[in-house]
Design a protein that fits this description.
The protein is mainly alpha-helical. It is built from 12 helices and 3 strands, in the order αααααααβββααααα. Strand 2 (about 175) and strand 3 (about 185) form a beta hairpin. The radius of gyration is 22 Å and the shape is elongated.
């Protein structure tokens, strides 16, 4: 990337970080998406091509290039959104006078019903951990991770950044810093509390081996904050070993949490707040649950799992 374009990109990322207060993960996503786009434009037009000279046709060629690589419409829509935000920043700071994204249309996205797990399937995954994980410290940790994902609906970035001090055991809730560094409190329920109490005992023994404790809740065998990739691997490993024929990801547990709440009679606004959604439109995808399932769940749901939380 040429120096002029790199300088503009750095200025934009600093604006996102310091002026808008976006999270590190969000800023990293913008960095990745925009670097790919700018490098594509330079490869097509020569390394000296400036961002200020980009035309709508350059953006359209990039979209076509991405579609040929079989990148999903949802991901392409994210790329376009990042590019559009970048150019609006350039206009507002008078680096350019015309916005090439104004004529660019977002790809049509079909809103698919999210995959979710039943309580029985989550128990099956936990049973698989008990059966296959021979290292007790990892077993207790992984059980706590799975249960907390299911009973709190945390994003993976929120999970790995949790600190021991964020857990309030006596009142059974966890304080989470979500997107845009906004905090919210989420009830964890008695089952998650039990798993966390067991894990904290194991964590304490593990940390005695090390001189420094950064305070992160979930740690690796080296006493460091567990990575998002490690969480992804844990979920994939035990989902596969459990034999559940669904494409299970870390986010599946978030879908499952929202689904259980709605089945239990929670209103959409409460679910939005617990998930940390900025807009209720993002929460409406979970309204695939039928009225029949809602009524059935009200009588059958294990409310003990949610402790004394009030929705």
């Amino acid at each position: 990337m040429n120096e002029t374009n790199l300088s503009l990109l750095r200025g934009f990322l600093n604006y996102l970080n310091y002026d808008r207060g976006l999270s590190e993960n969000t800023v990293d996503s913008y960095r990745f998406d925009l670097s790919q786009f700018i490098e594509f434009v330079e490869s097509e037009n020569g390394e000296e091509k400036k961002v200020s000279d980009i035309l709508p046709s350059d953006i359209e060629r990039y979209i076509y290039f991405c579609s040929k690589k079989e990148i999903s419409p949802l991901t392409i829509a994210r790329y376009i959104s990042a590019i559009r935000t970048f150019f609006k920043y350039l206009i507002s700071n008078e680096y350019i006078t015309m916005d090439p994204t104004e004529v660019i249309e977002r790809p049509k996205i079909s809103r698919e019903v999210p995959i979710f797990l039943s309580e029985e399937e989550v128990e099956r995954i936990k049973d698989t951990i008990r059966e296959f994980e021979k290292n007790n410290a990892k077993k207790v940790r992984d059980l706590a991770i799975i249960e907390l994902l299911f009973s709190s609906g945390l994003r993976v970035s929120e999970l790995v950044n949790l600190k021991v001090g964020d857990i309030n055991m006596s009142n059974e809730y966890v304080v989470v810093k979500g997107k845009g560094n906004k905090q919210r409190a989420i009830p964890i329920g008695k089952i998650a509390k039990k798993y966390l109490e067991e894990y904290l005992l194991v964590r304490g023994k593990t940390m005695k081996k090390f001189t420094k404790d950064d305070g992160y809740l979930f740690i690796s065998k080296l006493g460091k904050k567990i990575s998002r990739v490690s969480i992804w691997k844990i979920v994939k490993k035990y989902a596969r070993l459990s034999g559940i024929e669904k494409n299970i990801t870390v986010h599946t547990f978030r879908h499952s949490f929202a689904t259980e709440l709605l089945k239990g009679g929670a209103d959409l606004r409460s679910v939005q707040e617990l998930l940390g959604h900025k807009s209720i439109l993002a929460t409406q995808i979970y309204t695939h649950i039928t009225d029949e399932a809602k009524f059935k769940a009200v009588f059958n749901i294990d409310f003990e799992k949610f402790g004394n939380q009030k929705i």
